Amino acid sequence: MGKTQSVGTFYFWFADERWEWSDEVAALHGYEPGTVTPTTELLLSHKHPEDRAQVADTLANSIENAQPFSSRHRIIDTSGRVHHVIVVADQMLDEAETVIGTSGYYIDVTDALEERQQETLDDALPELYASRAVIEQAKGALMLAYGINGEQAFRVLSWRSQETNIKLRALAAQLIADLGMLTDSMAELRTRFDHLLLTAHERIEAD
């Protein structure tokens, strides 16, 4: 198989435990697009043995309490390669604003950079140096929330910047401003942090 993308989307409906993976998430697990139907059993079978129980508990809590499925863990693809991933998610609502599931992104933060990711990093460096303080703060928040290193935190910020077409500096500043309002427990903080990360661009006024 060719190189996999670093970010892919997923949807999970609580009622019938139905999953939907983007081609990128399927590839992350080692499958060609359209060749696999994701299930909870399949998902858990790809988790690293040391992380499987934690992910199973997180998923069970997500279903029981109608909470986003968010986690940091390792995936073993069909070829045996280990991927370190962050699952960043938010609630999925129906037209009546009832929580019916969770949707979000798998982010591959494995240390080896893909060529496209390196290009993204190079393109963003000038803005990084011009706005070091606020970006370093945002990186620190990501490192604390997800247990990742500085390079991986910057890759997550860069991804959201590209995904939302918002300047990296503005996105980092909004995230830090939003964090000042959080006073929850660590578990609640992680869930709310995911929400802030995925919606920060909506609170930035257009230039």
UniProtKB/TrEMBL annotation:
Reaction equation(s) it catalyzes: ATP + protein L-histidine = ADP + protein N-phospho-L-histidine
Record-linked Pfam families: ANTAR, PAS_3
Gene3D superfamilies in the cross-refs: PAS domain, Winged helix-like DNA-binding domain superfamily/Winged helix DNA-binding domain
Enzyme class: transferase
Superkingdom of this protein's organism: Bacteria
Residue ranges of domain PAS in the record: 21-66
EC number: 2.7.13.3
Domain ANTAR: 115-176
Record keyword Lipid metabolism present: no
Assigned keywords, A-Z: Kinase, Phosphoprotein, Transferase
CDD domains per record: PAS
UniProt cross-references to PROSITE patterns, sorted A to Z: ANTAR (PS50921), PAS (PS50112)
InterPro entries membership: ANTAR, CheY-like_superfamily, PAS, PAS-like_dom_sf, PAS_fold_3, Sensor_kinase/Photoreceptor, WH-like_DNA-bd_sf
Protein name: histidine kinase
